[in-house]
Design goal:
It contains five helices and no strands. By secondary structure, it is mostly helical.
């Protein structure tokens, strides 16, 4: 028997997922052009949001272990926490860039190419993960667990990569702040 009923609750979310998935990157891009000149630079934020990325990565792994052990409520709580941390990260990241000049990477040679590869893949995947997380979440709350499981494997892998590379990017650029 199919998990999805005729009145599939996840269908009501599809337009919202599309709007949010487009709106977030557009708003972030627009806010990156805004500088708040009368606000003190929030220079203390990068290590905080890098730590949030590290904590998100840890929570994703613990959530994965929890669901493998059939600890559904724990998994659900951890995933909601990971989503909340990602939102907190995004707010801090944008706030930092609205109050601070960009920091150029000072590394040279091969390390420069590695840095930019990690940074660019991190940014591109960060945009793409938005609809994936939302779709994965909606499938779970709609109790479409077979479909949820199919996409969650991909979502988990990409989200974990983004969280880890966020920390790596910070560690690589930190000497140049």
């Amino acid at each position: 028997m199919k998990e999805q009923s005729v009145s599939d609750p996840s269908k009501k979310y599809s337009k919202l997922i599309t709007v949010v998935s487009i709106l977030i990157p557009v708003v972030v891009a627009v806010l990156f052009t805004v500088r708040l000149p009368n606000v003190a630079p929030l220079d203390f934020l990068p290590p905080i949001y890098a730590s949030i990325n590290a904590l998100t990565a840890l929570i994703l792994v613990v959530a994965y272990v929890a669901i493998r052990k059939k600890k559904i409520k724990l998994h659900e709580s951890l995933m909601k926490t990971a989503i909340a941390l990602s939102l907190v990260f995004l707010v801090m990241y944008v706030a930092y860039h609205m109050t601070s000049d960009p920091t150029p990477f000072g590394g040279e040679g091969m390390v420069k190419y590695i840095y930019y590869f990690i940074l660019i893949s991190h940014i591109i995947l960060s945009i793409g993960i938005i609809p994936m997380v939302l779709i994965t979440y909606v499938r779970a709350i709609s109790k479409r667990f077979t479909d949820h499981k199919k996409i969650s494997v991909i979502t988990f892998t990409i989200w974990l990569y983004i969280a880890i590379t966020g920390v790596v990017v910070y560690l690589m650029i930190a000497p140049y702040y």
